[in-house]
Design goal:
There is one protein chain. By secondary structure, the chain is mainly α. The longest helix has 39 residues. 76% of the residues lie in helices and 0% in strands. The protein is flat and about 65 Å long. The chain starts with a helix and ends with a helix.
């Protein structure tokens, strides 16, 4: 959830970091106006997100809970044997892919 705020703030920073482009004059294109509108919309997005963040978090938790409570979902204990078997399969898959690339 923090990532959304971080990404939005990075976008705002990137817009602020565009200095030189303001000096260009292109007929029908007001770059400064576009930057200001973009920043305004990103700030609105961030504000709306921040005001609903708890709702989003609860919705995500609810969806995850539904997935794990579904009748077709089983939970397997994480054991050393399981990890070992997974690693063996991974290595055999990587080896097979490597051999296929060599052909």
């Amino acid at each position: 959830m923090k990532q959304i705020s971080i990404l939005t703030n990075n976008c705002l920073k990137a817009l602020n970091d565009i200095y030189g482009i303001n000096g260009y004059k292109i007929e029908g294109l007001e770059i400064k106006e576009y930057k200001n509108n973009s920043k305004k919309q990103l700030n609105e997005l961030l504000s709306k997100y921040e005001s609903k963040k708890e709702d989003y978090l609860q919705e995500i938790k609810s969806i995850i809970k539904k997935v794990f409570e579904h009748k077709n979902c089983i939970i397997i204990d994480d054991t050393e044997q399981l990890r070992s078997l997974c690693m063996k399969r991974r290595h055999s898959t990587l080896k097979r892919k490597s051999l296929m690339q060599m052909e």
